[in-house]
Amino acid sequence: MSSDISENTSLYAVVYYEIKKKIELGEYVSGQKLPTERELANMFGVSLITIRRAIQELTDEGFIIKVQGRGTFVEHQKLQRCIDRDFQILGFTTTCQLNGVKASTQILNRGIAGANSKVSRALGVDIKSPTIYLERVCLADNVPIMLEKGWFLPEFDFMKDEELENRSIIKTLASHGVDIDSASDNIIEVGRADAIVSRSLKIGKGEPIFIISSVLNDKSGRKIYLSVEYIAGNRFRLKL
């Protein structure tokens, strides 16, 4: 191996670790645009080839993302959500707390909706029978992570009027004397964002997403709420 190659490798490593360090220390924050390749080359006093190699490595490892025609940006930190030993998936608010970020929600739609076949099977109600429908976007530090669509049994019509912008569903139910015992029928799938998910989460149409379906059960074992979550794949990961 020539001395030039050895030197280039060393310089690439220096650039890689310096940029990575700035991201980890918060000097470059999520969503921030990085200097151009030429500006970075001038900053570090290295060639464009060295910069491009470091940038590619950081991109491959998920620290940054290159957007054609716009530049290179610090990738949003992935929200890590745990599945416990009983295969219970932690709620969004708890997940945000464990990740040290602030959870918030934006209500897109809610009201009365007829049960489709999936809702009918999940909640044990007749097709087209009324349910309480809720659609919202869940954000972590104001970054949209998840589009949630949910259906309650009709007796939970108070959920149509509850303040849910920055409050978890489980805590809201508890305030009405409804204690959630567990989630069941958990299904995790991988799909691609359609136009609605793309617009709601501000991601590209066709980008990979997680789709998580689950049913909340009260203390008596009654199934009261079906949740279907559409989660941006580049902002989220599951931990078993």
Automatic annotation (TrEMBL):
GO MF annotation: an example: DNA-binding transcription factor activity
GO biological process, one term: negative regulation of DNA-templated transcription
Keyword tags: DNA-binding, Transcription, Transcription regulation
Pfam families attached to this UniProt entry: GntR, UTRA
Domain HTH deoR-type: 18-73
Presence of the UniProt keyword Transport in the record: no
Domain HTH gntR-type: 9-77
Listed CDD domains: WHTH_GntR
Keyword Transcription regulation appears in the UniProt entry: yes
PANTHER family: MANNOSYL-D-GLYCERATE TRANSPORT/METABOLISM SYSTEM REPRESSOR MNGR-RELATED, MANNOSYL-D-GLYCERATE TRANSPORT_METABOLISM SYSTEM REPRESSOR MNGR-RELATED
Name of the protein this chain belongs to: HTH-type transcriptional regulator frlR
Organism: Anaerobiospirillum thomasii
